């Protein structure tokens, strides 16, 4: 089967930096930090008090009130991002096109945990037969994809990769393959997460995975020698992928081209990455081979860069393994310094940032970088973003369970 060229024609996002792609990208260019004290619950006496929350989110800006009431927050975020992405792509909700070849892949690592917490507390007080009839549909991780498919009539493949922090990139990569290999003409894809709640933060705190500091400017500090854990973020991003022929036939705007995807497993440990980032290195190499692109052609890597000791050193080693001497010639940054870590939505948000970086010729900074680490010695675009045109951008996502996903994007020259 002939492989199709795949392009990005629409994007949408809600995240700690903004409620749209334009607002979020402007914040990225300005080096804004979306991390602040948690407002969702009382953190008195808790070790972790910071998160990257979506600010002032009102779901009725994107959906009917009755529909929002039947969705968990993670699904509301996904719907908001999808509405923006579809409008941006110029695709209506009720078009006359044959949508049996249009699909949906939206990841979530945890789903509606906030609903689980609330309904469990209610059940303990009033009895378990009194939980909401919408409890199960509101918590299952696949429902964001299902609801988006219902709203836009997407009748092709509809699925949800649940691969922890690699999920958003797996969603985009799986959608890319579906379009490239001829199984779909249009795919709506991305990731969503809403895990800033007392239970989720408590679980990650007990794992000693989160930064327990109180200063937002020194909390999420990827590749900095003083990094001490990641900061939880939340939000969603959705991208519309199409065959080039389909996009051009309808005169669609094109942001960038998706050209490569690699997905591997460490098969090593529940939470720790394989030594020297071996699995991540294979994912990067696979993405390059998938696209037929030489390592030296890549000008920018949006790193997974979580601000944990093991991830940042291991990912740096993996980049050196794949790119050799060129690793020191290209730019690398982690936008998690601004957004925090959005878990299953991270790779999708970062895919949006990569597409915008290629389109605008601007590479995001790793903000709040101060103390160099000998184990992390690449060009991390410290503190100030950089006006620089690159032809290829790589995005890494590495998840608990040993999941690794890597996407390769190409600058559109149409």
Descriptive account of the structure:
The protein has 414 residues and is of the alpha/beta class. It has two domains: 6-249, 3-Layer(aba) Sandwich (Peroxisomal Thiolase, Chain A, domain 1), CATH 3.40.47; 261-411, Thiolase/Chalcone synthase (Peroxisomal Thiolase, Chain A, domain 1, 3-Layer(aba) Sandwich). 33% of the residues lie in helices and 19% in strands. The protein is built from 13 helices and 14 strands. It has helices spanning 21-29, 65-68, 73-89, 113-126, 135-139, 143-152, 167-180, 198-206, 244-249, 278-291, 309-323, 336-339, 346-360; strands spanning 6-14, 36-37, 50-51, 102-107, 158-159, 186-193, 235-243, 256-265, 298-302, 331-333, 362-363, 386-387, 392-399, 403-411. The protein has a ten-stranded mixed β-sheet with strand order 5-4-6-7-1-8-14-13-9-10, with helices on both faces. The chain has a two-stranded antiparallel ribbon with strand order 2-3. It has a two-stranded antiparallel sheet with strand order 11-12. Helix 11 (309-323) links the parallel strand 9 (298-302) and strand 10 (331-333). Helix 3 packs parallel to helix 6 (143-152) and helix 7 (167-180) packs across helix 13. The two termini are 25 Å apart.
Instruction: Going across the biggest sheet, name each strand in turn.
Output: 5-4-6-7-1-8-14-13-9-10
Low-confidence stretches: none
Give Rg in angstroms: 20 Å
The fraction of residues assigned to DSSP E strands is 15-25%
Order of H and E elements? EHEEHHEHHHEHEHEHEHEHEHHEEEE
Fraction of helical residues? 25-40%
Q: Let me know the largest β-sheet.
A: 10 strands, mixed
Shape: globular
Total domains: 2
CATH superfamily of the largest domain: Thiolase/Chalcone synthase
Distance between the termini: 25 Å
- The structural class is alpha/beta
Number of strands: 14
How many DSSP H or I helices? 13
Average pLDDT confidence is 97
Could you name the CATH topology of the largest domain? Peroxisomal Thiolase, Chain A, domain 1
Please state the second-level CATH architecture of the largest domain: 3-Layer(aba) Sandwich
The CATH first-level class of the largest domain comes to Alpha Beta
């Amino acid at each position: 089967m002939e492989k199709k060229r795949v392009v990005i024609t629409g994007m949408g996002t809600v995240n700690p930096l903004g409620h749209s792609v334009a607002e979020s990208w402007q914040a990225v260019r300005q080096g804004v930090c979306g991390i602040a004290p948690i407002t969702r619950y009382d953190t008195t006496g808790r070790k972790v008090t910071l998160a990257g929350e979506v600010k002032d989110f009102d779901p009725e800006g994107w959906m009917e009130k009755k529909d929002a009431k039947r969705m968990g927050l993670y699904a509301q975020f996904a719907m908001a991002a999808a509405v923006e992405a579809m409008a941006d792509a110029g695709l209506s909700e009720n078009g006359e096109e044959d949508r049996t070849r249009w699909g949906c892949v939206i990841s979530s690592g945890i789903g509606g945990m906030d609903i689980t917490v609330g309904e469990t507390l209610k059940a303990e007080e009033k009895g378990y037969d009194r939980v909401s009839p919408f409890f199960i549909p509101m918590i299952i991780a696949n429902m964001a994809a299902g609801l988006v498919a219902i709203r836009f009539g997407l009748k092709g493949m509809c699925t949800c990769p649940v691969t922890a922090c690699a999920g958003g990139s797996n969603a985009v990569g799986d959608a890319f393959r579906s379009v490239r290999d001829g199984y779909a003409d249009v795919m709506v894809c991305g990731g969503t997460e809403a895990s800033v709640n007392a239970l989720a933060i408590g679980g990650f705190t007990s794992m000693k995975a989160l930064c327990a500091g109180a200063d937002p400017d020194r909390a999420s500090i990827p590749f900095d020698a003083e990094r001490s854990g990641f900061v939880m973020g939340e939000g969603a991003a959705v991208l519309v992928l199409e065959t080039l022929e389909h996009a051009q036939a309808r005169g669609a705007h094109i942001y960038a081209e998706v050209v490569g995807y690699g997905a591997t497993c460490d098969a090593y440990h529940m939470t720790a990455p394989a030594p020297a980032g071996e699995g991540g290195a294979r994912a990067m190499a696979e993405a390059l081979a998938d696209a037929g692109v030489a390592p030296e052609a890549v000008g920018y890597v949006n790193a997974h860069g979580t601000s944990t000791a093991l991830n940042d050193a291991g990912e740096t080693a993996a980049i050196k393994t794949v790119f050799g001497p060129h690793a020191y010639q290209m730019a690398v940054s982690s936008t998690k310094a601004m957004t925090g870590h959005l878990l299953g939505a991270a790779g999708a948000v970062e895919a949006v940032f990569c597409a915008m970086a290629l389109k605008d010729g601007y590479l995001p900074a790793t903000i709040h970088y101060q103390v160099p680490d000998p184990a992390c010695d690449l060009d991390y675009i410290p503190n100030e973003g950089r006006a620089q045109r690159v032809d290829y951008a790589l995005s890494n996502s590495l998840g608990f369970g040993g999941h690794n996903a890597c996407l390769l994007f190409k600058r559109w020259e149409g």
